Amino acid sequence: MIYVGKHQTKDLDDGYMGSGLLIRRAIKAHGIENFKKEILYVFDNEKEMNQKEKELVILSENSYNLCPGGQGGFGYINTLNLPRNEYGK
Q1: Per-residue b/e over 64-88, b at no fewer than 16 CB within 10 Å?
Q2: What three-state secondary structure class fits 4?
Q3: Is the pLDDT of residue 81 over 80?
């Protein structure tokens, strides 16, 4: 399984593994030690970051991604009107 996500931070070692519903559930079920994070790109602006995520995300049965790349993040989550606990908060 694979998850492609974006993260805005000044600390690349902040422990962030993704905020997607399926990836968070998988980490909880299988333990963080069974997942590997690889930083593919670092960007200077959000527009370029979103474009690259759009190119990289492939929705399939082998992916934890739920929506096409470039559309995720909290702006997208807020449009879904899901209860906050759906995202572990």
Answers
A1: bbbeebbebbeeebeeeeeeeeeee
A2: coil
A3: no
